[in-house]
Amino acid sequence: MTLETRLTDLLGIEYPIVQAPIGSATTPELAAAISNAGGLGHLAVTWRDREETRRAIRETRGLTDDPFAVNLVLDEATTAIDTADHLEAVLDAGAPIVTLSFGDTAPYVDRIHEAGAVVTRTVGSAEAARDAVDAGVDAVVTQGLEAGGHVQSEVATTALVPRVADAVGDEVPVVAAGGIADGRGIAAALALGADGAWLGTRFVASEEARVHDEYRRRLRESDETDTAYTTLFDKGWPGTPHRVLENETLERWREAGEPPAGERPGEDEVVARTDSGDGAPIERYDEALATPGVEGDVESMALFAGQSVGLTNDVRPAGEIVAELAAETADAISELPGSAD
């Protein structure tokens, strides 16, 4: 059974499986492995400077001849780099697909198309999807409340995808994100009206992802009830909701009566240090991602994960994960009533 959809046709990929832009966990090796396996790999570059961005894109292109995507967050509170300048670095480096989130897409769509690239927009409502299509995007990504990391929606994936599919009709492909980690979830998203699925947590638990071993251990051992939707880890990106694994930081805050920022327990406490040359401090409520060289109390940091974490039980090469997802999806579709034998 083939898994061809409007999304695979648009992007030139074999399977309707997209790796979410999982922040600092992304690497050229991860993106290339997924693209080489038939999915769409992804680089997150918002927190990289221009030269790092160019280098990461060049390295990815050196590892794969297949399409891959590059993500920019449009909320300029997250970066000191001007978004227009950063986008130029992305396009100059030859990114074939640009994905945008958390901001106004309209000022950038024409420039991306002029460079010959495809552009997508992540949305959290049917209205936002309609606005994105009117701005000229080539596809919309519907992010449900179940998603890990920073979240743009207050609506569950199963309710959001049909609404967005109805809102945009046949104009652009729809990609479902949030709570998807296996082929059954991908098949369900397709049945709801999506043309593909966007998976983050499952690919954080891959060998190529740039994450700390303690983070991986928590992903393997956690279940669907072990995440929290919160705005607690707000230092670095204030006011933006996110979903993380339950940990001591959340427990201490709740026990203190959930006080506001500035009054939380251990407000300025340094719980870890980065793997950069100067070992920069990571405070208890920072939104920093637990990368491999971080030293300290990693378990107390923001360990981003979606509710699909209960389906994430092992760590394997990303290419193997894509192959398994594709096989599971085909099996799930073939078992649906009315499917051809």
Describe the structure.
The protein is of the alpha/beta class and 341 residues long. It is 34% helix and 16% strand. The chain is built from twelve helices and 14 strands. It has helices at 6-11, 28-36, 50-63, 83-92, 106-114, 126-135, 157-168, 183-191, 201-204, 213-221, 248-255, 318-334, and strands spanning 17-19, 41-44, 68-73, 97-101, 118-123, 139-143, 149-150, 174-177, 196-199, 227-230, 242-245, 270-273, 281-283, 295-296. The strands form three sheets. The chain has an eight-stranded parallel β-sheet. Strands 7-11-10 form a three-stranded antiparallel β-sheet, with no helix packed on it. Strands 13-12-14 form a three-stranded antiparallel β-sheet, with no helix packed on it. Strand 5 (118-123), helix 6 and strand 6 (139-143) form a beta-alpha-beta unit. Helix 2 (28-36) packs parallel to helix 3, helix 3 packs parallel to helix 4 (83-92) and helix 8 (183-191) packs across helix 12 (318-334).
The proportion of residues in beta strands is 15-25%
**Can you write the helix and strand succession as a string?**
HEHEHEHEHEHEEHEHEHHEEHEEEH
Q: Radius of gyration over alpha carbons?
A: 19 Å
Overall geometry? globular
- Mean pLDDT figure: 94
Question: Which bin fits the share of residues in helices?
Answer: 25-40%
